[in-house]
Amino acid sequence: MKHLATALGLAVTLPLAAVAECASVSAGGLTVTGAWSRATIGNERPAVFYVEIRNEGETADRLTGIDTPVAAMTMLHRTVVEEGVASMPHAEAVEIPACETVGLAPGSHHGMLMGLTAPLTEGESFPVTLQFERAGAVEIDTRVLSIRAQEAQCDAG
Amino acid sequence: MRRRLILGGAGALGAFGFMMGLGAWRSGDLRRITGDAGALDRIDLARMDWELTDDRGDRVSPRDWLGRASMVCFGFTWCPDVCPTTLMDISGWLEDLGPEAERIHVSLITVDPERDSPATLSEYLSNFDPRIRGLTGTPAEVAQAAGAFGARYERIPREDGDYTMDHTSGVHVFRPSGALSSIIDFHEDRKFAVPKITRAIE
Ligand SMILES: [Cu+2]
Description:
The complex is a heterodimer of chains A (157) and B (202).
Chain A: H1 2-7, E1 20-21, E2 24-27, E3 30-38, E4 47-55, E5 61-67, E6 71-78, E7 80-82, E8 85-87, E9 94-96, E10 101-104, E11 109-116, E12 125-132, E13 136-145, E14 154-155
Parallel strand pairs in A: 1-14, 3-13
Antiparallel strand pairs in A: 2-3, 3-4, 4-10, 4-11, 5-9, 5-12, 6-11, 7-8, 12-13
Chain B: H1 12-26, H2 37-42, E1 52-54, E2 59-60, E3 69-75, H3 82-97, E4 104-110, H4 118-125, E5 132-136, H5 139-149, E6 153-157, E7 163-168, E8 171-174, E9 180-184, H6 190-201
Parallel strand pairs in B: 3-4, 4-5
Antiparallel strand pairs in B: 1-2, 1-5, 3-8, 6-7, 8-9
Helix pairs in contact in B: 1-5, 3-6
The structure holds copper (II) ion (CU).
């Protein structure tokens, strides 16, 4: 079971005990924390990836892509509303200016996870590797929250 | 103007809905019009002519909503970012309204009728406030309804053969008479959104 789950890229975790501490990973001046996604109905619909990136360094960096074993295809998107119409064009990269915190968050930049290998189930988690221009690859454990979730449900570390 | 607006069946009805939508759109951005009563008047449930099927399988027409205030938004259940956000915003507003929320109809009209059947809408909406009804129909029926609201949508193909939809993201708020009262922008702050709804109810 453990092996199957690992093969699917899904780390089986215990049910969430309300609010816990977020996984937090640092690389150079960057700290990546509060990674979450929403549960999906089946695996035909695309899923999202949200996270917070803190740059405490003196140099700007850029998030150029994400990768995860749970999706066949991933993309960085940015939700924009123009003349009342919402669209989510592909974002080549997300700028992470020095001394700033940038969030992939609902209604803004987000990761799109397409071609899911399995439905995302609330309470589970899965790894996502963020690719930064300077800091390189950073892997973070991403928690699957309810389809109703609007933000990470943890104390941002 | 965008490249491809969905015309549904592209039949006379679809084209009519499209022209209506375009007309309302060209007349200006409703959200920014305060003095132009003409443009607001054009979006009136009492003067609309469309019929859709809700997530319980019942046929619905705009006349069914008259006598109570209504809120209408557009979206689709394959929508990963904007639609869950809008539905949660609406759920939050309904909570804030308390018992007043019983005096308003809330509907999501899908812009993706090919994938969103009544059963699909029902399954998806079961995750949100139970007072939110989902409406779908044939592509031509959806085009006609969207046109009546001045709503726009467009199918955006993706590299992998799948597609997503761009769509009008504001929530239309109507008075019991059917007249458009206001449009709540995507992700508008609760402290502005809730009074807009209260004003439509009273
Ligand atoms: Cu997206």
